[in-house]
Each structure stands twice: as structure tokens, then as C-alpha cells.
Amino acid sequence: MAKTLPQEINGLIQLLSLGQFANVVQRARLLLAQHPREFVLHHVLALALDQSQQYPQAAQAYHRALQLQATSPELWFNYAIVLTHLGQWQEAEQAYRKSISLNPRFFEAHGNLGTLLQKQGKLDEAIASYRTGLTIQPQDPRGHFNLGTALRDKGLLADAVSSYEQAITLFPNYTDAYNNLGETCRDQGDMSQAVHYYQQALQRNPQHANANYNMGEFLYLAKRFEEAIPYFETSQLDDWQARVLYCLYRAEQFEAFKQLRDTIAKQGAHTAPFIATLSTHYSINHGEADPYQFCPNGLDFVYQRSIPELAPGTALLEELLNNIAQTDIAERKQARLTNGKQSAGNLFKRSEPAFRALGELVKREFSNYRTHFNAANCALISHFPEALDFTSSWYVRMHKGGHLDAHIHEIGWISGAVYLAMPETVDPKEGAFEYGTHGDQYPQLHTDFPTAFIKPKVGDIVLFPSSLFHRTIPFDADAERICVAFDLKPSPNLATSHSQY
């Protein structure tokens, strides 16, 4: 006897619960050919496609289901997640808001909407969304954790600490919260507390990737290079191989460094700027050819242009200077900075229109940078990212005697700065931007490491490969030097950023 449609649907739901997604997709499509307006079939198909990560097809199936029945908040919620996977952020935001309009107490929808808004840099809206969720479930530690991440992005470090502490109070084994609390204490300059919280995370989960990475970073900043290596190796996170190379090089274990560097270089595309920094320095130090071809001669890839919208006297320049002077943005401790202040948080993700406008101007110049160097035969250009994300952006205010020691930005692809105020000096090098191939106390077997400098004007932008060392030359003028610095790197895929316990 042939099965009835309800029996067929029950069978599909059982298969779905067993994880037989391919079978569900095949059978649901056959049934839909006979029953194209059966809502449940579209819904089950969408769930199976979603679970098997066939996101474009899942989005189509959710859309068809919603055309037949648009009053299910859970359906809009699932549709929003799939749209987020597809990078359709505006549509995903609308879907989350529709879900919330149908069920204002949908805690998970408020949380995911907050995550989506936060990734887009809409920090005030994200914070509001997280807080609304917490009025629904105030005892949910995940909600407090996510609120903490947005507060930290905005530079509200003390508030972020409170949110992470509340998450831990509610869930004492919350390893992500311990780790992020440590990172926030680090941003506040309290390294002893930062290490304490990293260790708390590792006591609960010795394999915690971020906590291992952060402990490794602390140890190498403390020049305990050989102790740091096992933490980076355990983390397997992001640029961990570059960090191991750094430790080997700073410990002057040159043979071990060369062996690992050469192994990495043979594995494929040379797309890690930090490894390029190390490899270039080693090669100059030892008089050898550099096998890591991210950017063969980084000094040739420095770009300086004037941004008309930031010329002296323009409205945007005045608004930016006013925001920097008056906006309540926490300070991030910076050991390399003398006679100056560096802001915390991610400036271009704040709500102030001037910072947002500046971020768009930087992205425009980033595109111009690619066009300018388009003929270059190196990984910097051949693997130039299509979609970009500001991993960080901050202002630096210096006064008389101010300077910044030579360093690199390990997490960028292209780094740069826009200059909003510059001291007038007789010596053209005072207050200048110097770039080169040596810094950060790397071991030197000789001093023949090339450098060059640029003296920017107000309204200038300088872009350069993140593999280059750079510093600010001290100046003696009784005036301020103000710039907004940033790192751009390939944009990550976005789903939701809710932590795991």
C-alpha cells in the first residue's frame, strides 16, 4: 500500500533526526514535484540542505517555505543564519528583525542579530541587541560574553571586564570568557591579571586555542622565547607558525629557524606577511637569497597620497580632530610609544560618522593601491584580498618628544596611517614615518639593513605591506602629531560569533 503524504513527511522527519541529509534532500524533492505547495516539505528540505552546508540551495528552500507560511519566527531565524553564511548581511539582518517582530522574546535571535551588527561595525546597535536579549534571559552567560565582546570593540574596556566577569559568575568554567577577560586586561596594560586569566582558561581546557596563543604571546614579549613555542604549537591558531619562527629567530636558533622557514616556503603560496618579515631579515643577515616571496622588496611597495577630503580646513578633518579630542575612548597601553596615547577598540567600527567616513576613504585608497602596483609579480598583489576587514584601527596622539619604536603589525596584509596633524620642524626627518627591514630587537649580524622615510603632510595617507618595519622618528616641536592607523586583512566568513562553553 502506498504511503500517504503525512506518512512520507513523518519518514522524512525521522531521517532528518538521524542525520541522513542526502536521503532527505532526494526524497523531499521527489515529493515536492507532486506537492509543490506543501509547506512542511519545503521546510524539511531547507533544514536538510542547511545541515549539509548547501547554503545557496537552503536559502532558496527557506524562501519558498516562507512564501507559503511567513509567520514562523524559527523559520525566519534559520533563514537569517543561512543568509549570513552567504554574506548577504542586509537580508540576514532583515530576517532576524522579522523573527523578532513575530516573537519579541526570541533570545537567540536577539543574540545572533547582535553578532551580525557587531561584525558590520554597528556597535551601538549590537550592544542594544545584546542588552535586549539579556532582559529576556539575564542569567544566560553567553549573552553577557557577547555583550563584552562588543563593549571591548567600542573601547569600553572597564564595561567589557564587567560583562565577562558576569559571564564567569554565571558559568564558572567559561573558558572563552576567561581568555577574553585576559585579553581585555592586556589592553588595559595589566599583564599580571591577563596572564592569570589565560591560566584560568588553560586549567579548564589545556587545548584552548586562544588561551594557548595568548600565553605564547605573553612569553615571547617577556623574551622567554623557548617557553613560548609549545603554546603556539598547541594553539595551531592563525599565524602560529610565524610565531614559532619568531621565537626561534629571537632565540638565535638560526638552523632550526631556517629548516622550518624552508619547509613552510615549499608548502605553497607565500601569503603570510609576518613570515615575510622574518625571512627577509634572516636572508639579509646571512647574505642569502630569500625563498619566501610575499613581497621581495617591501620598500618599493610604500604608497603615499593626499586625500582631498582631509585637506587642512575641510569639515571632515575638523570633525575627526574634534572626535579624537572629545570622545570618551579608552586608552590602550603601548610599550613602544613614548610621549603619546593610543586609543583602544576598533575606531572604524564606532558609530561616529567621521570615523565611518574615514574608513570608507581608506578602503578607496586601498583599491587604488592595488591598481597602482597591479603589474607586480609577488604574492602581495597576486593574492590581494577581494574582501577586506579592518582587524584594528586606532588613533595615536604624540606631543613633543613623541616617537614610536620600530615594529610590524603581525595581523595585517596592508597597514597604514592617515595623518590629521603634523608638527612643523626644520629637520625633515623629525616626526617622519620611517620604514625598513630591521626592528623589534631582531638579532643583527651586521647593520646593513635598508631604510627610507616619508614626511607626511596633513591629509596624507601612507599604505605599506604589513611585513615592513616602521617607526616614528622623534620630534622636538611643541605641537601634536595625530594619525589614525589601521590594518586591513582578508575578510573572514561570517556566521555567528557566539562563544562555546
In short, what is this structure?
The protein is α+β, with helices and mostly antiparallel strands. 52% of the residues lie in helices and 13% in strands.
Describe the structure.
This protein has 501 residues and is α+β, with helices and mostly antiparallel strands. The chain folds into three domains: 5-169, Tetratricopeptide repeat domain (Serine Threonine Protein Phosphatase 5, Tetratricopeptide repeat), CATH 1.25.40.10; 229-298; 300-490, q2cbj1_9rhob like domain (Jelly Rolls). The chain has helices at residues 5-17, 21-34, 39-51, 55-68, 73-85, 89-102, 107-119, 123-136, 141-153, 157-170, 175-187, 191-204, 209-221, 225-235, 240-250, 254-265, 273-286, 315-326, 353-372, 379-382, and strands at 303-306, 337-342, 388-407, 414-421, 433-436, 451-454, 460-465, 469-472, 481-490. Strands 1, 2, 3, 4, 5, 6, 7, 8 and 9 form a nine-stranded antiparallel sheet that branches. Helix 1 (5-17) runs parallel beside helix 3, helix 2 packs antiparallel against helix 3 (39-51) and helix 5 (73-85) runs antiparallel to helix 6 (89-102). The chain is globular. The chain starts with a helix and ends in an 11-residue tail after the last strand. This is Tetratricopeptide repeat protein. Keywords: TPR repeat. InterPro entries: CHP02466, TMTC_O-mannosyl-trnsfr, TPR-like_helical_dom_sf, TPR_rpt. It holds the Pfam family TPR_16.
